[in-house]
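Quick check before the chapter quiz. The format below is the same one you will see on the exam, so make sure you can read both the input and the output lines.
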Amino acid sequence: MEGSVTNNPSRARVIKALSFEKLDRIPHHDDYWRQFVDRWRMEKRLGSLADIEDYYEVDIRISTPAEEGWPSQAAVVKEEGGFVIYRNGWGMLQRQLAHSFGEIRHGFFGQELQVVCQEKTDPEKLKFESPQDDRRFEWTSRCVRRNAGRFAIIGKVGGPYMRTGQLRGTEQWLMDLAEDPGYARALASKVTDHLIQIGLEQLRRDNLYATGLWIFDDIAGNQGMVMSPRTYEKIFYPCVAKMVKAWKAAGAAKVLMHSDGNIEAVLDLFVAAGIDAVNPVEPKAGMNLERLRKKYDKRLAFVGGMCNARVLPQGSREEIQNHVQSILELGQDGGVVLAAHSIGSDISVEHYDWAMAAYRKYR
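Here is the expected output.
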């Protein structure tokens, strides 16, 4: 199990970085698409058991429980014409391309066909399956057993915006936020209480106290928030603050926040809620790591900064290496973990190797 920080170099490195302490090298975290991994193995002439995270010295592994309200109901309903009709653990019926269905766990990003709360269901009438159900944590426990001593393992829990939206559907949920914030707040609070218990149970079962938990909640696009910062503050900030308070009171060392897009408008709220770091800090969305690092000093750490939209796919060797070096220079006194949003099929192995060569040289 996770135990103390001292007997795991990656874990010690990550926690020191998030705590703005001196460290042996700046940590690295990346998530690799299956297509990239397959091409990497082919080009490097490596077997199917080759571990890309070991090869590129990744320090973090995310452990994901079955956090949904009704995970036992998740199932493929039917397959037709190259599509999968799937009901996820939040009760949402979706249509997704068959070839991409297995790439995204739980099928969160398919075409929405039907939701549980088609009408404004009283949140108190929603009875989720027990957060203590052993089946929720079968994968996370295996992940910890396999990787004890190797990675900084951080538990993953969804956030109140996206997970509550699964109950209402994306379009209706955004309308709720504008038209009936009282109902939206009550429904988000119900989901938040459930997610808190999932996080507490994962901390306990997998002994993740030395690292903590990571909230995943995409609340923005490249141009900014999907709602006004005021709406986020009124409805979701109390939920996030409640999550952080509960988990840290239980002993979690850190709580991180993931959201794609430009979330700068709510970073002060994250600091106030007790969030320790944000990810992925996407340059394509205007998230300038140098400026944010200076602005927040030691109040907020950053996991990200690498541009996977233009620099890694299209940049010259010199541009890629200078890009990585500039990020590493910002992390010399902690506060930075080198990462991109993800490493997808549009990034060549050669270009990524250039980035990792710079990482090994300047880290």
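If your answer matched, good. Residues 1-5 have pLDDT under 50 and may be disordered.
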